[in-house]
Design brief:
The protein has one domain: Carbamate kinase (3-Layer(aba) Sandwich), CATH 3.40.1160.10. The chain starts with a helix and ends in a 6-residue tail after the last strand. It has ten helices and 14 strands. By secondary structure, it is an alpha/beta fold. Helix 3 packs across helix 5, helix 4 crosses helix 5 and helix 7 runs parallel beside helix 9.
């Protein structure tokens, strides 16, 4: 690539730099992009580039595989019910140790290493993520009451107190948040990172909420990528069974975030190096964008 071609690429991104300057973007960081060393470095560089062109990134990370690995090392067996990790007190200690003490600090360190100013938090800091205990109901028959299943210290977001994030963003820091919430009892609760990202995006009135996943994006019934999806179409994808597994909380979170004022949600393939930059700063983009009405990113 010659020098002129490089200049043209930079100039083509100028409208996006202008439109996104000063805007908050929440990024859910998970999947293969958190494991592969090359992808981890590419992600950190993308975040720092976003910061230097005037965007205010806020990162929410997962860490399910790392939690399961640590549990197995300690002789504990991971148990899941309807996709939720059963979290007794011993498991919660592992969850917090891995997410807050290890994964979070690794992400912060890598971003700082490539020129950023990241700060690690959990939802317990400043009562950032207040939660209530989640209960699962299992229906066993039309004439029988549902069975109530206690899955331990698993929470659902009740309230977000974003003041600490606004303070950090105003001072040019990059918040990196572990999805551990605080209950009314003051105890730590394990919370789905997708739902945390959506709740934070709504509370921050983010311009965009971006999910890095291990799939291309949202697929239709024939398995074809849906490049643009109206929020009104989300429920049909879920109720029809077309959306399955980990895509369901992402879609539900996207729908709620848009209802709270987030402009657009993107579900993109984090296995592609620099997928964040491709999605934000090129005409082609990748993955699926979810919005209130059809339009152009």
């Amino acid at each position: 690539m010659d020098i002129l071609e490089k200049a043209k690429i930079l100039i083509s991104a100028l409208p996006y730099f202008r439109d996104f300057y000063g805007k908050v973007m929440v990024i859910k960081y998970g999947g293969h992009a958190m494991v592969d060393e090359e992808l981890k470095l590419a992600f950190a560089k993308d975040i720092v580039l976003m910061k230097y062109v005037g965007i205010k990134p806020v990162i929410v990370h997962g860490g399910g595989p790392q939690i399961s690995q640590m549990m197995e090392r300690l002789g504990l067996k991971p148990v899941f019910i309807e996709g939720q990790r059963v979290t007794d007190e011993e498991t919660m200690n592992v969850v917090e140790m891995v997410l807050v003490g290890t994964v979070n600090k690794q992400i912060v360190s890598l971003i700082n290493q490539v020129g950023g100013r990241a700060v690690g938090l959990s939802g317990r800091d400043g009562d950032l993520i207040q939660v209530e205990k989640m209960t699962i109901y299992k229906y066993t028959g039309e004439d029988r009451p549902p069975e109530i299943i206690d899955i331990g210290r698993v929470g659902k977001v009740k309230k977000v107190n974003p003041e600490v994030l606004f303070t950090l963003l105003e001072r040019d820091f990059i918040p990196v948040i572990a999805p551990v919430g605080v209950g009314e009892d003051g105890q730590a609760y394990n919370v789905n990172a997708d739902l945390v990202a959506g709740a934070l995006a709504g509370a921050l009135q983010a311009e965009k909420l971006i999910y890095l996943t291990d799939v291309e994006g949202v697929k239709d019934a024939e398995g074809k990528l849906i490049s643009t999806l109206k929020v009104s179409e989300v429920e049909e994808l879920i109720s029809s069974g077309v959306a399955r597994g980990g895509m369901i909380p992402k879609l539900k979170s996207a729908r709620k975030a848009i209802s709270q004022g987030v402009k657009k949600v993107h579900i993109i393939d984090g296995r592609v190096p620099h997928s964040l930059i491709i999605e934000l700063f090129t005409d082609e983009g990748l993955g699926t964008q979810i919005l209130e009405e059809r339009g152009v990113a």
